[in-house]
Amino acid sequence: MTRSFHHYSPELKQRVVAEVEAGRLTLREAAQDARTNINMVRVWLEEYGRYKPKRDIVEVVMRSEEERIAALEKALAEAHLKLRVYDELINQANKRFKTDIKKNFGTTRSMPSAATTASPPSAASSGTRATPTTSGSTGPSSTTARTR
Predict the structure, then answer these.
(1) How far apart are CA 90 and CA 99, in angstroms?
(2) Each residue of 85-124: pLDDT tens digit?
(3) What is the CA radius of gyration of the chain?
(4) Is the pTM of this model over 0.70?
(5) What was the pLDDT predicted at 99?
(6) CA 1, CA 3: separation in Å to the nearest integer?
(7) Which residues lie closer than 8 Å to 19 by C-beta, 6 or more apart?
(8) How many Å apart are CA 66 and CA 44, to the nearest integer?
(9) Do the beta carbons of residue 131 and residue 143 sit within 8 Å?
(10) Average pLDDT, whole number, for the chain?
(11) Hey, how many other C-beta atoms are within 10 angstroms of the C-beta on 127?
(12) Backbone φ and ψ of 84, nearest 5°
């Protein structure tokens, strides 16, 4: 298979470029008219065209990526609003109950005094110290039982 190279006159190239730039022909129609391919018409556009393509790096953001960014920004705004509402709720509860909920969060709640008197006295509430068992004793102590 041999390749033949076609030499096109500069007048033909300029006429095709002018037609494409004026919008009277598409790249495909211009290629058919000049009996060449679309890539050759693109080369002519770069060579003879008025609008030279810029060689700068351009960030291309796809529409789906823009939608994703918008959705994430919306979710962030909603989360921020929710956080502000929760903070205000905590502040109102602190004022009403005269406590600091954030400071006391995660600590065990102490039982009211009426509930502790109903339960049997333990070593800690009776004021006596519990004696820990040692590994040398023969059985578990009555005050401390070990389970594994």
Answers:
(1) 10
(2) 999 999 999 999 888 888 877 777 666 655 455 555 554 4
(3) 42
(4) no
(5) 87
(6) 7
(7) 25, 30, 33
(8) 35
(9) yes
(10) 76
(11) 7
(12) -65, -40
Which amino acid is residue 82, in one-letter code? K
- Amino acid making up residue 46: E
* Token code pair at residue 86: 């929760």
Q: Looking at this protein, which amino acid is placed at residue 35?
A: R
Tokens at 90, concatenated: 């905590």
Q: Return the structure tokens found at 93.
A: 């509860």
What is the rounded average pLDDT of the residues 123-144? 50
Instruction: Tokens for 63, please give them.
Output: 């529409």
Q: What is the 3-state secondary structure (H, E, C) of the chain?
A: CCCCCCCCCHHHHHHHHHHHHHCCCCHHHHHHHHCCCHHHHHHHHHHHCCCCCCCCCCCCCCHHHHHHHHHHHHHHHHHHHHHHHHHHHHHHHHHHHCCCHHHHCCCCCCCCHHHHHHCCCCHHHHCCCCCCCCCCCCCCCCCCCCCC
Assigned token pair, 59: 């960030």
